[in-house]
């Protein structure tokens, strides 16, 4: 009877005593999903959350080096991994004295804005040969820079697995140097930095909703320290070192930068060409060494505090911390992959927007003809010297073809012409080779004359 009474009481319990419906906000509901994880013994991110800040050092330095090129003060305000590498580069800049007496030049080298050696340079008018050039020359040769965003014009009919790119750069306006250096500007891929910033803000808000103030503080610390360092570098000024003025009467510094798959023709005053081949970039910060020391201290503080305290946060807070690092590390890695493209876009401004024309030559012979026409047509430089530098082969067909090309350039013929007598001195196999060479030369010759009518005034 007692059991029956208990059962009856359970059945006829008044509905007014039931639990009311939970009307908590959505964010509290989502946070409650992570509550069991705090008690779970199957997950342990304590070590991972501390070590994760040491991942992606090279990409973090590359992303930081792009701040002066963007010039946007809001860039970099996110929690990022790899800060230990940034500290190392900044400290090395402060204490390295053997490289240069100026911190600005050392800083540019440390974060990768300068320092790389460029390719061989040959001056067509003076005959000067430089086995190595400076960073700007390297950027011109190895980046994907195409001038005014135009696709290269294809020259030649024969297919080639490794075509040669020919870029003709005309410095119509002088390149400012020293304190008058134009600030390089690039806007490429800058909007992607919104993603890690938004992720870090959301992670902070989520930790606050769960009242995990330790994780909240560590993420916010990363945002503030990285943001201040990025702000300081964004306000820095990239300058091109002063160049010695050439002597009066010095001919233009026309010449070519040579690599295996790219030939860059430089045409302009000696001073402007020297700025590309010999100029050194510097990154000047307001406050000098003291500002650099402040950046190093802030980033060191971020690394030390996150390494010590982050393992004591809750599991959900650690997950939010790792999520912010994951998104910012992915964006840093993407910017590192696009680094040359971004820098070359900024380089175009630094060089005072020269006029550029780009070709894709299907054969090395076509590339040699384009370079020879660009350097020898107006200057009257002997064409054979340029051709030997570009195609250093000595078969009889090429010797005959190059001699014919040099004669056409010397006479400034509007159309490439050759004598049938060239084939009489060669055997059948050499004649076939000569025919292919003549086709390549003819295609490149006609294309250059068509594209540069003002520079190729034909002799009548």
Automatic annotation (TrEMBL):
- What is the protein named? Uncharacterized protein
Keywords, ordered alphabetically = Membrane, Transmembrane, Transmembrane helix
UniProt key word Transmembrane? yes
Give the source species: Rhizopogon vinicolor AM-OR11-026
| Membrane-spanning segments | 191-208, 214-233, 290-309, 315-335
* Domain of life from the UniProt record: Eukaryota
């Amino acid at each position: 009877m007692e059991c029956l009474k208990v059962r009856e009481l359970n059945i006829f319990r008044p509905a007014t005593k039931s639990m009311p419906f939970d009307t908590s906000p959505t964010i509290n509901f989502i946070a409650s999903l992570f509550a069991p994880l705090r008690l779970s013994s199957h997950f342990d991110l304590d070590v991972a959350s501390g070590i994760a800040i040491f991942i992606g050092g090279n990409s973090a330095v590359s992303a930081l080096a792009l701040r002066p090129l963007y010039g946007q003060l809001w860039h970099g305000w996110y929690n990022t991994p790899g800060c230990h590498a940034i500290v190392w580069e900044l400290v090395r800049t402060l204490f390295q004295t053997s490289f240069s007496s100026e911190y600005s030049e050392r800083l540019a080298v440390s974060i990768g804005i300068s320092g790389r050696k460029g390719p061989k340079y040959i001056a067509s008018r003076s005959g000067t040969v430089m086995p190595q050039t400076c960073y700007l020359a390297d950027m011109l040769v190895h980046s994907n820079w195409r001038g005014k965003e135009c696709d290269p014009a294809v020259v030649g009919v024969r297919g080639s697995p490794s075509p040669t790119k020919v870029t003709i750069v005309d410095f119509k306006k002088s390149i400012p140097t020293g304190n008058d250096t134009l600030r390089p500007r690039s806007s490429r891929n800058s909007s992607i930095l919104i993603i890690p910033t938004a992720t870090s803000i959301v992670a902070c808000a989520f930790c606050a909703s769960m009242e995990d103030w330790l994780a909240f503080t560590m993420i916010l610390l990363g945002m503030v320290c990285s943001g201040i360092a990025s702000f300081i570098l964004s306000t820095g000024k990239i300058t091109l070192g002063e160049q010695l003025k050439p002597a009066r009467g010095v001919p233009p510094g026309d010449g070519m930068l040579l690599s295996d798959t790219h030939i860059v023709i430089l045409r302009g005053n000696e001073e402007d060409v020297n700025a590309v081949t010999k100029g050194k970039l510097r990154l000047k910060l307001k406050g000098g060494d003291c500002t650099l020391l402040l950046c190093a201290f802030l980033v060191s503080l971020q690394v030390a505090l996150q390494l010590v305290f982050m393992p004591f946060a809750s599991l959900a807070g650690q997950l939010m911390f790792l999520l912010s690092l994951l998104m910012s590390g992915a964006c840093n890695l993407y910017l590192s992959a696009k680094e040359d493209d971004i820098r070359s876009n900024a380089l175009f401004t630094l060089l005072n927007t020269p006029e550029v024309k780009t070709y894709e030559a299907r054969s090395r012979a076509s590339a040699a003809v384009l370079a020879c026409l660009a350097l020898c047509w107006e200057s009257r430089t002997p064409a054979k010297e340029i051709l030997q530098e570009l195609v250093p082969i000595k078969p009889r067909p090429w010797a005959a073809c190059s001699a014919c090309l040099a004669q056409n350039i010397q006479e400034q013929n509007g159309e490439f012409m050759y004598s049938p007598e060239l084939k009489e001195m060669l055997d059948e196999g050499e004649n076939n080779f000569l025919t292919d060479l003549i086709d390549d030369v003819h295609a490149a010759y006609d294309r250059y004359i068509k594209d540069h009518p003002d520079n190729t005034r034909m002799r009548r």
